[in-house]
């Protein structure tokens, strides 16, 4: 392409090709100028390696100095061109010299693919086409082989093909990949007349009259690629080359433009009226930024890595010069820029599609935005029909378009109205209309934001029963949403540097609206039937949708986003048309949107204090319903697989436990009465046991057991202990699968010991099992009954039960002293390593107000292999008894909560001892050696 042609003097510092040729020629002097001697070849290879290393090192240095990504890619391409030219000349003059070549002994070396565009990343493949006039000759075969082996020995990955001009034309007609490669072919060296002949014939015999076919193939290829990489351009670990909004999308744009408009450079699209000068500048800036990131990524990793994974994002942010700002890390600022560029790429795609369709090249394939396919030139749909209730807009082929260029200038409210119409009538927007919207964004000002009609229309979109997610995403892609709601604009393209959130903040908010709509339509009953049932009973659905839209809108600020978000809600809700009561409810939901998830996952739900504390926060059944539904939708919108049956079960349990407190159905039975009722209920279900045995059994448990273990589990425990007694076994276990909740329950009976849970945690870690919850009970005769819940891995119940039995077998071997656990855990933990890309501040809270009977220890820190084992071992060495443990993982961040007492069953009241607990557990989180950890094997009861 003309605007990427290289002048040798611009890159002369990279490589002096003439000097290199002379060096190689001098190496052949002792051999009469012939370079066939193996020693000569080795010396030639060494010189080439030195020249290439010098050039690549200099290209990296210049990238760090000027930050020019496109320049770096062009420098590397030029360096590669010169290396190939030197190798070709050496082969021609010193290895396979011919004094009088025939017409068949000609060759053109041509760059194709990305290399053909004159750009090359440090780890890119070098794609070459050797063009011949006729069939291959022995001379041509030898030269090609020599060049390829030299390039391979230089450590390059070379894609290559050797074809005649006729073969290139024939294959281009039938193979779209080959056609695309030749479309971007660039002459490097050899017989340029051959290359010119190929170009001329390709234009005349392949390209002419086939625009529709080519564009259809490229758009279909793009759609398939997006499916493989993830359909959102806002994935927090994007593929910079193949992902949505990445370099390949820009390549596809230019392939289509080059093929259809027959241009050689992007700048020609301005003179053709396809892009404005401003849009062309966005194209160049986007391409330059993406190339800078890609080149840094390859240089940093030393390989052709295309995925911006967490472990490289921070280093690249530093290389690119990003700094930390209040509320946003350097890496988050870099990734926000990346996603804004990806959005620009999407805008450019729509603009090009609009230009093509204006020339009757394209027609809609579906109702989705940008989902277009091609038709034969000249085919037309029905005439445009005016929309009666929306003057200024028409419907063309099922899509809304503007009747004139002044539709937004004459009435800026139309910038909101058009999306409300699209949602209500279930039409997509014409690419030409999207282009006009983008060019009219300056009309969205304070007056429009305060316009009652505009806000009424926006609230209608947000609370639509049709497709609010799709409409909001279209508004966001067009730039309207961020301008109409500036607080939303601040989180557009904002990523959170953690492993928990899969999408940018704006994408998460829009997806959460979509999930909420699915719940309301009853499409998520399998995931959370309670939410689907309750949403039909709430008094005001629009407060739920507004709260969902605003719940994370204050992310990226120095203060807590829930508190700042509530303040934003109080400002925006009246503007949207909500009354005072609705505004209070929305603000409360935003401020407390994390409370139910936190309580459910990290507190003991069998502890009355937990339920009473949560009920005091919620205060009404309506708020409880709203908060449950919002919590479910929020977690499900975080990313695939984040919401699971176990989390759903915890949320349901918290809801049902809290409901009587808020509905007036709660009767404050005395502790003694509750215990008596639980014992009587179990005795009734054990009617097949002798009465004396029943009475003796219920006396083996302390009151705390009866207060928190549900009736079904008390029966299972009773049968397990009875079997163990009959067989005179001190160790026993049972596995129960819970398919709906997505967990497997393992109950272990063993002599009581402070290190019991630590041993179980170690055995689970060694087997790869992930503990999500644990409950520990002791009997009056010195035994412990520990119940742990591990994440389910296998879909079939029988397979999962066998997995649970293998884990149980190792647990029992460990407890019997048959498996030396500490060494095994240490080896496995060392092999896995730590998540070095993240920094999570360690924190240990020791709290006596969260439970009436226990001291609650909350440990926050960076998750790592073996952490739960280290924590429980540290707690054991502190002579603490664990009553229950609740394990929550949010990506790289773990929050483990332990309900503990001292060995006499009392809370930890001594302040000095609390300080020791904090210190020892911080050491455990950081992986520092713990003094006096002792052995974990226990063969007899204490």
From TrEMBL:
GO BP term, pick one: regulation of nitrogen utilization
Segments of this protein annotated with the region Uridylyltransferase: 1-386
Cofactor(s) recorded in Swiss-Prot or TrEMBL: Mg(2+)
Pfam families, A to Z: ACT_ACR9_3rd, GlnD_UR_UTase, HD, NTP_transf_2
Domain HD: 505-627
Positions of the ACT domain: 745-826, 856-939
InterPro entries the UniProt entry points to: ACT-like_dom_sf, ACT_dom, HD/PDEase_dom, HD_domain, NT_sf, PII_UdlTrfase/GS_AdlTrfase, Polymerase_NTP_transf_dom, UTase/UR
Chemical reaction(s) catalysed: [protein-PII]-uridylyl-L-tyrosine + H2O = [protein-PII]-L-tyrosine + UMP + H(+); [protein-PII]-L-tyrosine + UTP = [protein-PII]-uridylyl-L-tyrosine + diphosphate
EC number from the UniProt entry: 2.7.7.59, 3.1.4.-
Source organism, top-level taxon: Bacteria
Alphabetized GO MF terms: [protein-PII] uridylyltransferase activity; phosphoric diester hydrolase activity
Activity-regulation annotation: Uridylyltransferase (UTase) activity is inhibited by glutamine, while glutamine activates uridylyl-removing (UR) activity.
Domain notes: Has four distinct domains: an N-terminal nucleotidyltransferase (NT) domain responsible for UTase activity, a central HD domain that encodes UR activity, and two C-terminal ACT domains that seem to have a role in glutamine sensing.
HAMAP family associated with the record: PII_uridylyl_transf
Protein name: Bifunctional uridylyltransferase/uridylyl-removing enzyme
Gene that specifies this protein: glnD
């Amino acid at each position: 392409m003309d605007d990427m042609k290289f002048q040798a003097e611009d890159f002369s510092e990279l490589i002096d090709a003439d000097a290199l040729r002379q060096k190689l020629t001098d190496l052949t002097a002792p051999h009469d100028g012939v370079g066939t001697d193996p020693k000569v070849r080795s010396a030639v290879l060494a010189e080439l390696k030195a020249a290439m290393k010098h050039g690549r090192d200099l290209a990296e240095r210049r990238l760090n100095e000027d930050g020019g990504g496109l320049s770096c890619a062009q420098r590397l391409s030029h360096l590669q061109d010169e290396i190939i030219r030197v190798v070709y000349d050496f082969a021609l003059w010193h290895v396979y010299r011919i004094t009088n070549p025939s017409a068949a002994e000609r060759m053109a070396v041509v760059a194709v693919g990305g290399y053909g565009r004159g750009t090359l990343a440090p780890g890119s493949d070098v794609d070459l086409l050797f063009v011949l006039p006729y069939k291959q000759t022995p001379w041509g075969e030898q030269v090609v082989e020599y060049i390829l082996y030299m390039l391979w020995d230089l450590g390059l990955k070379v894609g290559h093909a050797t074809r005649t001009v006729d073969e290139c034309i024939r294959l281009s007609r039938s193979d779209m990949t080959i056609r695309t490669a030749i479309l971007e072919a660039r002459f490097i060296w050899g017989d340029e007349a051959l290359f010119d002949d190929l170009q001329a014939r390709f234009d005349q015999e392949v390209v002419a009259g086939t625009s529709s076919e080519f564009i259809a193939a490229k758009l279909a290829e793009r759609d398939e690629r997006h499916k493989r990489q993830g359909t959102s351009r806002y994935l927090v670990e994007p593929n910079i080359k193949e992902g949505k909004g990445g370099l390949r999308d820009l390549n596809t744009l230019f392939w289509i433009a080059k093929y259809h408009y027959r241009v050689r450079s992007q700048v020609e699209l301005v003179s053709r009226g396809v892009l404005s000068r401003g849009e062309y500048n966005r194209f160049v800036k986007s391409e330059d930024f993406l190339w800078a990131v890609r080149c840094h990524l390859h240089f940093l990793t030393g390989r052709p890595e295309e995925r911006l994974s967490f472990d490289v994002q921070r280093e690249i942010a530093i290389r690119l010069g990003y700094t930390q700002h209040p509320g946003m890390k350097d890496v988050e600022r870099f990734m926000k820029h990346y996603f804004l560029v990806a959005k620009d790429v999407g805008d450019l795609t729509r603009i090009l599609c609009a230009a093509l369709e204006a020339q009757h090249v394209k027609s809609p394939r579906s109702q989705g935005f940008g989902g277009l396919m091609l038709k034969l030139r000249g085919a037309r749909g029905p005439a445009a029909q005016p929309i009666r209730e929306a003057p200024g807009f028409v419907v063309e082929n099922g899509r809304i378009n503007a009747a004139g260029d002044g539709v937004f200038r004459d009435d800026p409210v139309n910038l909101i109205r058009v999306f409300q119409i699209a949602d209500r009538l279930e039409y997509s927007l014409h690419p030409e209309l999207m282009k006009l919207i983008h060019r009219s964004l300056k009309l969205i000002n304070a007056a429009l934001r305060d316009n009652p009609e505009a806000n009424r229309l926006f609230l209608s979109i947000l609370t639509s029963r049709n497709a609010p997610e799709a409409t909001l995403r279209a508004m966001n892609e067009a730039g309207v949403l961020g301008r109409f709601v500036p607080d939303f604009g601040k989180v557009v393209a904002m990523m959170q540097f953690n492993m928990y959130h899969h999408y940018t903040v704006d994408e998460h908010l829009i997806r959460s609206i979509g999930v909420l709509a699915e719940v309301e339509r009853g499409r998520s009953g399998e995931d959370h039937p309670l939410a689907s049932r309750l949403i039909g009973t709430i008094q005001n659905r629009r407060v739920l949708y507004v709260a969902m839209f605003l719940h994370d809108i204050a992310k990226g600020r120095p203060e807590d986003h829930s508190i700042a978000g509530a303040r934003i809600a109080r400002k925006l809700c009246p503007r949207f048309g909500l009354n005072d009561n609705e505004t209070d409810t929305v603000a409360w939901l935003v401020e407390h949107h994390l409370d139910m998830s936190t309580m459910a996952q990290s507190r003991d739900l069998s502890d009355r204090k937990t339920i009473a504390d949560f009920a005091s926060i919620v205060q009404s059944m309506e708020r409880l319903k709203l908060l449950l539904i919002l919590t479910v939708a929020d977690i499900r919108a975080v990313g695939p697989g984040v919401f699971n049956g176990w989390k759903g079960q915890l949320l349901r349990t918290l809801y049902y436990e809290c409901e009587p407190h808020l509905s007036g159905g709660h009767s404050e039975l005395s502790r003694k009465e509750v215990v008596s009722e639980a014992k009587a209920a179990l005795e009734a279900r054990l009617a097949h046991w002798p009465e004396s045995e029943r009475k003796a059994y219920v006396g083996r448990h302390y009151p705390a057991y009866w207060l928190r273990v549900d009736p079904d589990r008390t029966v299972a425990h009773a049968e397990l202990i009875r079997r163990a007694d009959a067989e005179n076994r001190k160790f026993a276990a049972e596995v129960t699968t819970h398919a709906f909740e997505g967990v497997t329950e393992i109950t272990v009976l063993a002599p009581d010991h402070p290190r019991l849970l630590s041993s179980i945690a170690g055995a689970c870690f060694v087997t790869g099992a992930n503990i999500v919850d644990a409950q520990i009970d002791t009997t009056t005769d010195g035994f412990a009954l520990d119940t742990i819940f591990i994440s389910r891995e296998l879909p079939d119940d029988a397979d999962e039960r066998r997995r649970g039995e293998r884990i149980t077998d190792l647990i029992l071997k460990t407890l019997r002293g048959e498996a030396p656990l500490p060494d095994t855990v240490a080896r496995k933990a060392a092999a896995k390593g730590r998540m070095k890309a993240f920094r999570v501040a360690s924190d240990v809270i020791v709290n006596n107000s969260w439970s009436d009977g226990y001291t609650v220890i909350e440990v926050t820190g960076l998750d790592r292999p073996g952490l739960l084992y280290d924590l429980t071992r540290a707690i054991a060495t502190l002579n603490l008894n664990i009553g229950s443990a609740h394990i929550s993982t949010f990506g790289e961040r773990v929050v483990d909560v332990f309900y503990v007492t001292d060995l006499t069953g009392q809370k930890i009241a001594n302040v000095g001892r609390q300080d020791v607990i904090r210190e020892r557990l911080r050491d455990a989180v950081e992986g520092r050696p713990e003094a006096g950890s002792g052995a974990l094997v226990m063969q007899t009861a204490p």
